[in-house]
Amino acid sequence: MRILILDIYPKKPYRISKDNNGGYGSSNRYGSNMVGKAINWFIKKNVDWPPLSSVHVLGILRSKGHEVFYKRELPDFLDKYDLFVIPSSIVCHESEINLIKKLKSLNKKIAVIGPFASSNPDLYIKEGAFVIKGEPEMFFFNEDINLKKIQNLKGVIDNFALSPLDDLPLPAWDIIYKNYPTMFSLLKNKQKMIPLLATRGCPYSCRFYCTYPLQQGIKVRQRNPSLILNEMKHWQSTLGVNFFIFRDPVFSINKKHTLELCETLINSNQKFQFVIETHLNNLDIELVKKLKAAGMVMVKVGVESAMKDVKKDANRFSIDEDDTFNKIKEIESLDIHVTTMFILGYPKDTIETCKATIEYAKQINSIVTQFTVFTPYPGTPAFNGYKEKILTNKYEDFTMYDLIFRHNNLSKEDIEKLKNEAYQKCYLNPKWIKKYIKARSSLPH
After folding, report:
1. CA-closest candidate to residue 365, choices 295, 442, 438, 297
2. Would you kindly state where each structural domain of the chain is located, as residue ranges?
3. Topology of 196-440 in CATH?
4. Rounded to whole angstroms, how far apart are CA atoms 221 and 372?
5. CA triplet 26, 29, 33: central angle to 5 degrees?
6. What is the pLDDT of residue 214?
7. Which CATH number fits domain 1-18+28-33+49-181: 3.40.50.280, 3.40.50.360, 1.20.1090.10, 3.40.50.1820?
8. Helix (H) or strand (E) holding 69
9. Rounded Cα–Cα distance for residues 99 and 25 (Å)
10. Are 26 and 399 a contacting pair, CB within 8 Å?
11. Are 113 and 86 in contact (CB under 8 A)?
12. Angle, nearest 10°, between helix axes 351-364 and 321-332?
């Protein structure tokens, strides 16, 4: 079979990612003032990769003998494809629906994958597509599809039992790189990189509003460290990539597995650099030293808010604010860059609490500071309390950077002003400018 993964995006002046936000996606509209627009442009130009699950599906289908293709725009000749696979997201939803309608009018067979469609399948089924629920890699890995079989697929296809992550073939990044090379050029120009996974699953209580567990579940599953090393070596030798971003929801949640991976990478004598995202509670200084020895150059951590009661109300567990500050500074003392992530507009937030969070972020002064906006997503437990308060009827407005519900204390205009203030204070801070100039020269060019 000839199968096309058609990964469509609306045209916007900011980056849209379907891989962020647990696969629901995000539209990185950092702000509307001069600083915000400059960051919008910079990130769109320098950071890009497709949803990781789609690249895994490409690899699995190719391993089974199918001809596979990946495009971000509708090709001229549609008759040569037997199946169209569309990665779903909330931030591209209306664009995806328009695409499905066009393909259906031509009597094409359409599969939709991804956590947004898994949680909201009727949105896609009513337009004539079928939805593969859960992790699409597991469906295509466990099921041998053919022309006759796909003609009979409709509605929701419940996923098969999860196969071990170690059984999956390599994702097909070589296909992606032909036309859409991935980028993470925040500290180094034209930094090629490969996203990969060491674990899947997240058990933390912030799943009340977080979308990660909707597809990956709450049970943590690990990959064999030797296979992770083999994958990194493969992309280093075939694509010339030695920079990686681990897309685990909570890297280092299993300390034993993390240490085994570190030892495997260190003992290989290969030179890699990588970025992780984790919870500060899962990092101690000895583990950070081990990760650095293995190649870690940046860690992304969710700080979320400076206010304990605001976080507690949203079921967000975090360590004490002083401990957070001290641990970040300790990590940075080892020449590890830190990305801090904050959320404005939590249910109990006010203008004053948001301003306190902005000042706290400025005080931390991490190399990258990100402010998103609390968003109750359809499919999460949080949505039930907000569905009557939603201010938009368009899913693409759920950007993760805009207020989309009637907040008790804040307006959309308040959030926009706060977001503009946040990025301006952090990125026009003379201490940050000095820090960034130094960091630009810290990675080999």
Report:
1. 438
2. 1-18+28-33+49-181, 196-440
3. pyruvate-formate lyase- activating enzyme (3.80.30)
4. 28
5. 170
6. 61
7. 3.40.50.280
8. strand 67-71
9. 18
10. yes
11. yes
12. 30
Closest of 357, 51, 60 to residue 180, by C-alpha: 51
H or E stretch covering 278: strand 273-278
pLDDT of residue 208: 61
Tell me how far the alpha carbon of residue 306 is from its chain's centroid.
24
DSSP letter string over 255-295? Answer: HHHHHHHHHHHHHTT---EEEEEE-GGG--HHHHHHHHHHT
Nearest 10 degrees: Cα torsion 371, 355, 375, 381: 120
Spatial neighbors of 17 by CB under 8 A, at least 6 apart, are 25, 26, 28, 47, 48, 49, 91
Beta-bridge partner residues of 69: 4
pLDDT for the residue 319: 67
DSSP state of 380: B
The Cα-based distances of 285 to 117, 173, 247, 292, 333 in angstroms read 40, 34, 22, 10, 10
Q: Tokens for 423, please give them.
A: 């990025």
Using a 10 angstrom Cβ sphere, with 0-12 exposed, 13-18 middle and 19 or more buried, the burial of residue 239 is middle
Give the containing element (helix H, strand E) for 296: strand 296-304
Predicted local distance difference test score (pLDDT) of residue 46: 95
- What is the mean pLDDT, run by run of 10 residues, along the chain of 445 residues? 97 96 93 97 96 96 97 93 97 98 96 94 96 92 90 86 87 96 90 91 62 66 94 96 91 90 96 93 92 96 90 73 90 96 96 97 97 92 88 96 97 98 97 92 58
- Contact (Cβ atoms closer than 8 angstroms) between residue 322 and residue 360: no
Tokens describing residue 366: 């991490």
Residues β-bridged to residue 132 = 157
CB 182 within 8 A of CB 176: yes
Can you read off the two tokens belonging to residue 43? 């990130």
Query: Which residue, 173, 159, 176, is CA-closest to 118?
Result: 159
As a whole number of angstroms, the distance between CA 52 and CA 50 comes to: 6
Closest Cα partner for 241 from 441, 49, 20, 41?
49
Say how far apart CA 3 and CA 20 lie, in whole Å: 25
pTM for this model (two decimals): 0.93
Please answer whether residues 85 and 50 qualify as being in contact, where contact means their C-beta atoms are separated by less than 8 angstroms.
no
